[in-house]
Amino acid sequence: MTQPVFLAILVLVATLAGMAGFGFYHFTGAPEAAPPTAPSLASHLNEIKGSQRPDFSLPDLDGDIRHISEWDGDVVLINFWATWCPPCIREMPAFVEVQETYGEQGVTIVAVAIDNEQDVRDFYETYGLNFPVLLGETAGIAVSRDYGNRIGALPYSVLLDREGIIRFVKPGELHQETLEDELRPLL
Question: Model confidence over 108-145: pLDDT tens digits?
């Protein structure tokens, strides 16, 4: 092997090794700074608390168009969810129980499914949901964004008081105890 060929191979091997090392460090070992959106998201969620709920209309499982104003005067939990979302599925039994316990006191859970109709229909029947389920799909994502969900989190829950003022917002799984703690002062 001639010296120029040997040097070319050596340079190529060194370059590839350097690229591999950089890639390994960058993708596995590089220290990460806090995501820049974390503080701005928390700040944004605090800003929407105390604001009037945005209006929206979506179809229910019967194909009827339902408007959020239909539940004016109730304490309303709007929950954005999907059948393929494990934390969304874990929340549903608690929501059924909360609706059963507090429904007569003017509490309504409105579930906005970011999912296809057949999967939602199957889920509704299997889990015995006792509250309105609206079919959001793509329109539901836009409604979720209007309610402050800038990152597209699922589940995402928004609690409204009887005047339609946003009082509590929770991206991620909402546990029954937390929901009831937020709900009781609004009854």
Answer: 999 999 999 999 999 999 999 999 999 999 999 999 99
HEC per residue, 44-91: HHHHHCCCECCCCEEEECCCCEEEHHHHCCCEEEEEEECCCCHHHHHH
Pairing of strands 65-67, 57-59: antiparallel
Domain extent, residue 58, equals 50-186
Phi, psi of 172, deg, nearest 5: 95, 180
d(CA 157, CA 90): 14
Question: How many structural domains comprise the chain?
Answer: 1
What CATH code is carried by the domain that includes residue 71?
3.40.30.10
